[in-house]
Amino acid sequence: NSCCCSFEDYKLTTEWLLNQTSHRPKVAVICGSGLGLLADGAANKQIFRYQDIPNFPVSTVQGHEGCLVFGTIEDTPCVFMQGHFHLYEGYSLCKVTFPVRIFKLMGVETLLVTNASGGICPDFKVGDIMIIKDHINLPGFAGQHPLCGPNDERFGIRFPCMSDAYSKDLRRVALDIGSELGCSDFIREGVYCMVSGPNFETIAEARMLLILGCDSVGMSTVPEVTVAKHCGLRVIGLSLITNKVSLDYSREEKVNHDEVLEIGKMRAEVLQKLVTTLISRCQQQSINTH
Ligand SMILES: O=P(O)(O)O[C@H]1O[C@H](CO)[C@@H](O)[C@H]1O
Ligand code: HPA
Predict the structure, then answer these.
(1) Residues contacting ligand 1 via CB (< 6 Å)
(2) Residue pair 217/193 in contact by the 8 Å Cβ criterion
(3) Of 201, 239, 254, 257, which is best to mutate to test ligand 2, by the most ligand atoms within 8 angstroms of its C-beta?
(4) d(CA 64, CA 235)
(5) Which protein residue's CA is at the shortest distance from atom 5 of ligand 2?
(6) How large is the ipTM?
């Protein structure tokens, strides 16, 4: 359960990428299930397949293309992960979070994470976009935590604070953009809970998550955000509610991965607009605050 990657591994991959591309990204975007199209708006794209990048894990899940896309959004240099990694694929959390430290070493300052999740909050509707305010690291409670093992001070401190993992400023910016785009009706804020998966929740589990204060549930994101916060990246997270999690034994609907991917397509255009505007504002914000 401790990190399987050495500083030299991270360095090797970083140097390989820096030698292969002249892009120097400031913002990294992790595209969740079915959301790889978020990279489509980038200009001057340069694409690497994960399998060609030394030490990089490969995507094994449908809806995750497995490509690292460098490009620019309105002059902001960015890198997009079309597909991310999960515990349920059999990867260690060190591998799941490997790209985040590569981004840090490449000079990225802001991480924008996206995912698909199930709505726990009874008010949430399918197609809502939830700005992540906070998270619950359920696997972390059981010792499945990406920062377990010897701490490498070159990345961050032993006991990082997580009470402000999701930038308050960027959450405000995202809310403002949502209202400018006329999306306020379906933009929410809430608490995301990570479970390991791969099965979707039982009704008893879903009820427990509601009592715990979760608004949505998914099988990703928390490890990457934890590692990003540990190494000093600013984080903003968007979760697309792709299904309502059943809290009631009388409900007959059954969630499946195809439905999750389908809702991603349905919200593609607005999510892309939100993400591209957010990226350009992130950069302006960062210029103003430095
Ligand atoms: O979190 P992402 O990968 O976006 O996707 C969510 O959707 C998949 C299940 O349909 C799981 O991977 C879950 O975590
Ligand atoms: O209902 C869900 N549960 C867990 N992960 C998910 N990812 C999308 N929907 C869900």
Answers:
(1) 32-33, 61, 86, 115-116, 197, 218-220, 257, 260
(2) yes
(3) 201
(4) 21
(5) 218
(6) 0.99
What are the structural domains, with CATH classification, of the chain? 7-289 (3.40.50.1580)
182: region left, alpha or beta (phi > 0 left; psi from -120 to 50 alpha) = left
Condensed to tens digits (0 to 9), the pLDDT of residues 92-143 reads 999 999 999 999 999 999 999 999 999 999 999 999 999 999 999 999 999 9
Decide if 125 contacts 156 (C-beta within 8 A).
no
Helix and strand element counts for the chain (H, E): 9, 9
Q: Residue written as tokens 């209202």? A: 179
Q: Are 180 and 33 in contact (CB under 8 A)?
A: no
